[in-house]
Design brief:
Chain A: Keywords: Cell membrane, Membrane, Transmembrane, Transmembrane helix. Chain A: InterPro entries: ABC_BtuC-like (IPR037294), ABC_transp_permease (IPR001851). The complex is a heterodimer of chains A (421) and B (520). Chain A has 421 residues and is mainly alpha-helical. Chain A is built from 15 helices and five strands. Chain A is globular and about 70 Å long. Chain A starts with 14 loop residues before the first helix and ends in a 17-residue tail after the last helix. Chain B is of the alpha/beta class and 520 residues long. Helix content of chain B is 32%, strand content 26%. Chain B is built from 18 helices and 24 strands. In chain B, strand 23 and strand 24 form a beta hairpin. The chains are: A mainly alpha (421), B alpha/beta (520). At the A-B interface, helix 10 and helix 11 of A face helix 2 and strand 8 of B.
């Protein structure tokens, strides 16, 4: 069979390519003119390669010539931007976008830590840890959308999970019960979402928004009425870090990956399960079929409604698990709005990762990195106002989504309720 | 011998309609039974009941003499019933293997897909029935004809013995349709039994063993191809005599109304779909654009009527060159447009019939005076058109979206053809309509032609093109593969052109070159 190649308009650089190219050019100029303004040739940036307080898997510090590195980064960005503006990278745009982000972020850290020492390993370790809720949120989104249900209520489910996890963990002093409560909380909200959007075919965005608002209000109310007045209700034990024997001793990588809490290991385990499950098992095949073409699945005897309920509720359990990360994994108590939009960023990671678990994890790590960078930069102290630094993770999300959305396409039936005739 | 399938007294009531009224049906082993009827006659309802998608209000189903209950498609599949739906039930982003085994997966270690075994089984079926399908291909990359064969494999993979085909040729070229009927015959030779639903008379006569006609939910009669002819079947279908072959006078060609030169058009994804087409349309003639759906006809239609900007080339309407024409300018230049997607581009479904009947010229007298609508004139116009074009609507104030497809199309035709036009662009004007409405719309188009309009008729129905056109241009992958006089070609030749086989390779065809049309 002859398959004709589609003919596209030649020399067509889309406005989106132009804008991306222009932004790259600006970034390059920024590195050259702003970052590299006042460094002499012998300025040195020092990166520590072992997270603080760790005694295994040590590695010596990394010294970088600030001036020269910034020049190289700036020129590289400038060239990539110029090429993108004039010719466009076409289908490879997303890859280039990632590359540009990496270069820019690297240049930024080199600039910020000039004449100082920045703990790169610590930065990466906290990036991974901060990425966990984002990635888990993304996984929740993947489960739901692959089955054809848009779930923007991940944020609300996470918040509810965080609150319940803290309360149950505090009262029982049992972290496992706390975790179970957190997951249950997410699961129940997911059941509501599934019920509204599958059975009653309510617009899924509306249903998701309602759950988010409910969850924000409910957790704030409980927090200000009870948790703040009875501190014993909000003082939960936390999941400790567990070093994996052997692996934790690998220099640089060991302390970053193999000396973490349950949440990081759980995230990796879920990654493997989800990636394998979606694409290699009957469960995944049917789930994806329901999200792509529910009617086709139905005519082959697959129960569309049941599959969707299952996927959304599983997603809710995942979101609850992600919520527990905040209270049980990180600070040991619940604060109002402590998920700070991570559920939404998780959705961005899902889109950026093209609804594929592995790529979603990479995207999540990028966002997590932006997060941890903003906190370590404010600790280092720089001339940039703290508010701008705190904007960084969200800025990265916007840039990535602006660059990526439009070129990736999700499951065909995502967001459309299935109507049996 | 007991029939493989027997339906007794099947009845299904929908709100307001009795879709199936005590229908009896018998299917013998190894036969092809054609279920013939107009749209809305109840054929699909009956088959959906058999396949478990609808529950009947009454009646029983027997397989090999055994009564069975079909509550869902799983029951139907278990009973050996399979269905190829009109709109394929395939997932474009899955491979053939994944599509075929979905719901009936081969597994190892509990829940892990065994794609290798499934693919081998598909290869085996493909060889046995000569279907020629690659199990590893992505379904979305396959041509429609092959996708349909994937659907057939899906049924055979489940050991279906009774195969139902719902309007199987609606999306195929004539050659692909012939191929399909060969496959159907080879299936019945191997002991399968087939029911195929259609409203195309020719197919029924050529390929079926037995014909059952349904009208308004009732079995009207049964016959065999050797005892029936098209006129008789059409009469059974519609309930009155139907004029199948429109009387056509010789075309009286006049001046050029539409000239298209080297036109290049891209679709919304920037893919070029029309690669430099040229043709000329005179007043008083019908130029038919034939071709399988998706070969650039839609973009050509949109470029000519001002709905889409084109990349290069030239379009002249009545000698006036246009570069960026707006739909309103097209209308004011004497153009009429019967769009392909009538519900999206032709009507505002939530507006009443009378408003839809004046949509193109609402801003001009008599409908509008000083920017204010004159409802009395609008009503008068609507009443005239409704009676002149035989639109069956409860009242001019009924929302057009509640009318049947045929009547919606009549509203568009009434609005477009009632103006004083010089050029009519009609795309798929009778798609999905029943024989009676088709007859009516064809008659109207021919009347306009004889009044001196130039008509560009875009259709993927080859019968329609052959019947109405004076000249035929065949589009394939965005190019005009040939332009010929209708008298000089046979249907099968056009079919070959539609499949992309160029002029030189068609043996024995008269070389009526493209020059004859463009070089005048």
């Amino acid at each position: 069979m002859i398959k004709a190649k589609p003919v596209y308009l030649k020399h067509e650089v889309s406005p989106r390519d132009r804008i991306m190219g222009f932004v790259f050019l600006l970034l390059g100029l920024f590195v050259l003119l702003v970052f590299n303004r006042h460094f002499s040739a012998d300025t040195v940036t020092t990166f520590a390669m072992t997270p603080g307080g760790i005694t295994r898997g040590m590695m010596s510090d990394w010294l970088i010539q600030t001036n020269r590195t910034l020049w190289i980064c700036g020129i590289l960005l400038f060239l990539i931007g110029a090429y993108q503006f004039v010719f466009g990278f076409g289908r490879r745009s997303n890859l280039i976008l990632i590359l540009v982000s990496l270069i820019f972020v690297f240049a930024f850290t080199v600039y910020v830590a000039a004449n100082k020492m920045l703990n790169l390993a610590g930065l990466l370790a906290s990036a991974l840890s901060m990425a966990v809720p984002i990635i888990l949120g993304g996984f929740c989104g993947i489960l739901c959308e692959r089955a054809g249900v848009v779930n923007i209520a991940i944020e609300g489910m996470m918040l509810m999970g965080a609150m319940l996890g803290s309360v149950v963990g505090s009262t029982t002093k049992n972290i496992w019960l706390g975790l179970a409560a957190a997951m249950l909380g997410g699961g129940i909200l997911a059941l509501v979402h599934a019920w509204l959007s599958i059975k009653y075919k309510i617009n899924q965005i509306v249903s998701g928004t309602v759950i988010n608002i409910f969850s924000t209000g409910m957790t704030s109310y409980i927090s200000s009425m009870y948790l703040q007045n009875f501190p014993n209700l909000n003082k939960t034990p936390r999941f400790p870090s567990v070093a994996i024997p052997g692996l934790a001793d690998i220099p640089f990588i060991g302390p970053i990956i193999f000396d973490n809490s349950l949440f990081v290991y759980g995230m990796f385990l879920l990654l493997i399960l989800l990636q394998f499950g979606l694409f290699k098992t009957r469960w995944g095949l049917r789930l994806r079929a329901v999200g792509e073409h529910p009617k086709a699945a139905d005519t082959l005897g697959i129960n569309v409604f049941k599959t969707r309920y299952m996927a959304v509720i599983l997603g809710g359990l995942l979101a609850g698990f992600a919520g527990a990360y905040f209270s049980l994994g990180s600070v040991g108590r619940f604060d109002e709005g402590m998920t700070s939009g991570k559920g939404f960023i998780g959705l961005a990671a899902m889109i950026f990762g093209n609804w594929i678990p592995f790529r979603t994890m990479l995207a999540g790590i990028l966002f997590g990195f932006a997060d941890s960078l903003s906190s370590s930069v404010s600790i280092l102290g720089s001339s940039i106002p703290g508010q701008f630094i705190n904007m960084l993770p969200y800025l990265v999300t916007i840039v990535v989504l602006a660059g990526v959305v439009g070129s990736s396409s999700g499951p065909a039936a995502s967001g459309t309720p299935y109507e049996k005739e | 011998m007991t029939p493989v399938l027997e339906l007794k007294e099947i009845t299904k009531q929908f709100p307001g309609v009795l879709a199936n009224d005590h229908i009896d049906l018998k299917l013998e082993k190894g036969e092809i039974l054609a279920l013939l009827g107009e749209n809305g006659a109840g054929k699909s309802t009956l088959m959906n009941i058999l396949y478990g998608l609808y529950q009947p209000d009454g009646g029983t189903i027997f397989i090999n003499g055994q009564q069975i209950n079909v509550h869902s498609s799983i029951d139907a599949i278990k009973a050996g019933i399979g269905m190829v739906h009109q709109h394929f039930m395939l997932i474009p982003v899955f491979t053939v293997t994944d599509n075929v085994m979905l719901g009936e997966e081969s597994l190892i270690l509990g829940d892990i897909l065994d794609r290798k075994t499934a693919a081998a089984r598909i290869m085996e079926i493909s060889k046995q029935f000569n279907l020629n399908v690659d199990p590893n291909a992505m379904v979305g990359d396959l041509p429609v004809g092959v996708q349909q064969r994937v659907e057939i494999i899906k049924l055979l993979y489940r050991d279906a013995n009774i195969l139902i085909f719902d309007e199987p040729t609606a999306v195929l070229t004539p050659q692909e349709a012939d191929e399909l009927f060969k496959i159907m015959r080879s299936l019945t030779d191997k002991g399968k039994s087939i029911i195929f639903i259609t409203h195309k008379l020719r197919e029924v006569l050529e390929y079926s063993d037995r014909i059952m006609v349904i009208r308004r939910g009732r079995v009207i009669g049964e016959t065999t191809p050797d005892k029936a002819d098209q006129e008789k079947l059409a009469e059974m279908m519609v309930g009155r005599a139907v004029n199948l072959n429109q009387e056509k006078n010789k075309a009286k060609k006049g001046e050029v109304v539409l000239q298209v030169q080297d036109l290049v058009v891209a679709d919304s994804t920037k893919k070029i779909t029309v690669h430099g087409i040229s043709f000329t349309l005179h007043s008083g003639e019908i130029l038919g654009i034939a071709g399988v759906q998706g070969n650039g006809q839609t973009e050509l239609e949109e470029a000519v009527t001002g709905m889409r900007e084109f990349e290069s080339g030239e379009i002249q309407i009545s000698g006036k060159s246009i570069r960026k024409i707006k739909p309103r300018e097209f209308v004011e230049a004497g153009g009429a447009h019967v769009p392909e997607d009538r519900q999206r581009d032709g009507l505002i479904l939530s507006f009443p019939v009378e408003d839809n009947l004046m949509l193109c010229t609402y801003y001009k007298p008599p409908f509008s005076k000083n920017g204010i609508l004159d409802r009395r004139e609008i009503r008068k116009n609507a009443e005239n058109l409704i009676s002149a074009f035989d639109v069956r609507t409860p009242s001019p104030l009924t929302d057009v979206g509640t009318l049947s497809g045929g009547n919606q199309q009549k509203v568009i035709v009434a609005r477009e053809l009632s103006r004083d036009n010089r050029l009519i662009v009609a795309s798929q004007p009778t798609r999905g309509l029943d024989v009676g409405s088709i007859e009516y719309i064809h008659g109207q188009l021919l009347k306009k032609r004889d009044e001196g309009c130039g008509i560009l008729l875009i259709s993927s129905e080859l019968d329609e093109i052959m019947e109405l056109s004076d000249r035929i241009l065949v589009m394939y992958k965005g190019e005009a593969i040939v332009t010929v006089d209708t008298e000089a070609v046979s249907k099968s030749e056009i079919g070959l052109y539609m499949a992309g086989i160029s002029q030189q390779s068609v043996s024995g065809s008269e070389t009526v070159a493209e020059k004859s049309s463009t070089g005048e």
